[in-house]
Fold this protein.
Amino acid sequence: MNIIAIDGPVGAGKSTVARALAKRLGYAYLDTGAMYRAIGWKANAAGIECNKENMEKLCENTTLEVTLSEGEQVIIVDGMDITAEIRTPEMSRMSSIVSAYGPVRQYLLKLQREAGSRWAKKYGGVVIEGRDMGTIVFPDARFKFFIDADISERGRRRWKELREKGIDVELTETIQKIEERDSNDKGRSLAPLKKAEDAAEIDTTGLGLDEVVDNICRIIQSSQVKN
């Protein structure tokens, strides 16, 4: 199956790159981070303490659907479309918290593999982005990339994105939250954020979107020629 796995830290540009790459190749685009945000959203809405027992019960009683509508990913929890509601700094923080629990990871691992495999067959290929796609979810993905950038640029990108959504935050605060998120993602015992050994690393610092996508396409084409 044509599965392209893209991993990287927050603000590195992996979502934008993955979406653009999928469009160029005519593939589907699957944002797995949105699925963690969805669980974080439900935990937050329920007002429950995040611990292993509560997360296990929450997953047992959650119906999470991921679909495509006119090429855009839609997240539905228990019949409710929460696609827009999960795109806030608070839901980013909650997704990092719930992602540290085994029951959540096991619940979403199954859904991610099912959605990725189904979309790869249906659309001819899928670009999947997250933080453990190349290491845990799709270790046999045909192509793997790890997208990164320096912390200042990642902070500026994230700050600009939030401001464009009408969320008033300071740049220094945004950078601080990214550093905290990095620490949580890289330091957790379960599926920590790291580059897969066979992934190509792309540093997007100072690069435009087209340049990054061009670089990835060249690597894919070069690999296909060799094979």
